[in-house]
TrEMBL record:
The keyword Membrane applies. The keyword Transmembrane helix applies. It comes from Jaapia argillacea MUCL 33604. The chain crosses the membrane at residues 146-167, 290-314, 326-343. The lineage of its organism: Eukaryota, Fungi, Dikarya, Basidiomycota, Agaricomycotina. PANTHER family: INTEGRAL MEMBRANE PROTEIN (AFU_ORTHOLOGUE AFUA_5G07110). This is Uncharacterized protein. Keywords: Membrane, Transmembrane, Transmembrane helix. It holds the Pfam family DUF2985.
Length: 366
């Protein structure tokens, strides 16, 4: 495989993408760079914005990048807290599409640039399952996400063990021994849940506070605009911000607006799936869904705290069977549902038709 030095790195907000470089910008890079200035002072910032645009476009059309982003966002929300000494951003290595045969070259308009060929390959050959599985492998093979995958496997393994022992699919033909292994499986499962469910409570409480403030300002903005007889916002989840919108009409006070901006930036750093504002490729993330996700993650911690008290405060002879039978699934399902809503919310934000049309036009595809 090519070394990192021979590859072009595109740094996006949610992922870093590496691709073999041929040293010359293609059609996709040229079209997406038209919206950026080329003055010397803003060159570095402009390059970063340009790279982010490319990655954001790929996130919409490429199942491989989308899969890695979805899995990473779920892991960052439920398992991995934002800490300063490591990056939670995944690195995705894209391989070049296979070279065309002589027959294909004669019947197709080919592109020399690797990025152009990659995008053309995605738009002409969907192969969603294959690309998604490639994304799963990209996610698992990184060091931090490998630990996440091992954690998920252990949770599933010991959860299945509880079911197998309870249902006597694994029958030890001795009630005391059977109960002992049910207890061992339950305690291990409880310990795994405690690492995240209890250990991450400080971050979860802080993020819930931040999204509640954002949700509050959404409702307050709607109310104040109605009182001022202003038209309804085109997207109530994309709250106007004078930092980005020169035509902003003030309804919040300066203090409230500054607080909203601060909460959005900080929440976005912690919850990598959150998008406070719309772009050419994505809509703003639904605020109500964001609040629901944080509530479900809090529910995971809530049930886990009760489960810890039950598991460690009572031995297996004193503990009512229904306690673990309810609390373990409740804690587990809260985390699973949070991940599902992260995925669904992310899918809703993608402007698939517009992005695909823009890229097809850039490549002059039918």
């Amino acid at each position: 495989p090519p070394s990192r030095d021979s590859m072009i790195s595109m740094e996006g907000a949610q992922a870093e993408v590496l691709m073999p470089s041929d040293g010359h910008p293609g059609r996709i890079e040229s079209v997406l760079s038209l919206g950026h200035s080329t003055n010397h002072e803003g060159a570095l910032e402009d390059d970063n914005l340009h790279e982010d645009d490319i990655v954001e476009h790929l996130d919409v059309i490429d199942p491989q990048i989308s899969c890695v982003s979805n899995l990473t966002n779920a892991a960052n929300s439920i398992l991995i807290p934002p800490l300063s000494f490591y990056s939670r951003k995944p690195c995705i290595v894209l391989s070049c599409p296979p070279p065309l045969t002589d027959v294909e070259r004669a019947s197709h308009k080919t592109h020399d640039d690797n990025l152009d060929r990659h995008v053309e390959d995605i738009l002409s050959k969907r192969q969603r399952f294959r690309r998604t599985m490639r994304g799963v492998w990209d996610f698992v093979k990184t060091r931090s996400q490998f630990i996440t995958a091992v954690y998920g496997f252990l949770v599933a393994f010991w959860g299945a063990a509880i079911v197998l022992f309870l249902a006597r699919i694994i029958n030890l033909h001795n009630s005391n021994t059977q109960g002992f292994w049910i207890e061992v499986s339950s305690q291990i499962e409880n310990g795994l849940f405690t690492v995240t469910g209890v250990g991450l409570i400080p971050w979860r409480v802080r993020d819930t506070y931040r999204i509640y403030k954002i949700w509050h300002y959404k409702r307050r903005t709607r109310k104040l605009r109605q009182e001022a007889k202003l038209p309804t916002l085109f997207d109530e989840d994309d709250l106007p911000d004078p930092v980005y919108d020169n035509n902003y009409v003030h309804v919040l006070s300066d203090k409230e607006q500054a607080d909203l901006h601060y909460q959005q930036i900080q929440f976005m750093k912690s919850q990598t799936w959150y998008r406070p504002h719309g772009t050419e490729t994505h809509r703003a993330f639904p605020i109500n869904t964001a609040l629901l996700i944080c509530s479900l993650v809090d529910g995971n911690s809530f049930f886990q705290v009760i489960l810890c008290g039950t598991m460690w405060g009572l031995n297996r002879f004193q503990r009512p069977p229904w306690s673990t039978g309810i609390l373990i699934p409740a804690s587990f399902l809260c985390g699973i549902m949070a991940a599902v809503f992260i995925w669904k919310g992310g899918q809703k934000t993608k402007r698939c038709d517009q992005v695909e049309a823009r890229l097809r036009s850039a490549l002059a595809m039918d």
